[in-house]
Amino acid sequence: MSSPEIEALVQSLSRLPGLGPRSARRAVLHLLKRRESTLQPLMKALEAVDTRMTECGTCGNIDTSDPCQICTDPRRDDALLAVVEDVADLWAMDRARLFSGRYHVLGGRLSALDGIGPDDLTIAQLVARVRAGGVTEVVLAMNATMEGQTTLHYIAEQLQDAGVSISTLAHGVPVGGELDYLDEGTIAQALRARRIL
Ligand SMILES: [Zn+2]
After folding, report:
1. Residue 66, domain member (yes or no)
2. Distance in Å, CA 70 to ligand 1 centroid
3. 179-193, pLDDT tens digit by residue?
4. Is this structure's pTM higher than 0.90?
5. Is the domain of 83 the same as that of 160?
6. Strands 62-63 and 54-55
């Protein structure tokens, strides 16, 4: 067994998503073996985000400035607004580098089971943002879950008379996906959304 300090580090790392106790232990060993090239830069980076991290008052993104980098980027299209459930979804969508507009983070999804209603999400702020003008298309980029789709339909209703076009993400066969491995719901959705070549 290692010292309490090392065990504490393993413990706190293994609480991170995607890291179990085994991979946390491997990461710790890696950090300890290469202090100068990995441990010290990691400590600096952690401290920098810890002291500077903030939530963007415009879109809800997490960044080190408010407004965030995306909201202040002059190359982005103000007319296009993508609505996502969480910051993780914003980051995932932005990694694809295909969407050139701006974002709005809801802070979750409607869920009767968990007692999350419209007032618990930033839906009112979204409607106000769209009604303030400048946006021509709202992309409702909700997850393909039942709660995600409930949220999507609710927001579409709220924006019905806002004078903007509303689009949604296509659902279907994922890139690299094989039909044999997909569930019936995904195949049915892909069939409904089929395109003429
Ligand atoms: Zn922002």
Report:
1. no
2. 6
3. 999 999 899 988 988
4. no
5. yes
6. antiparallel
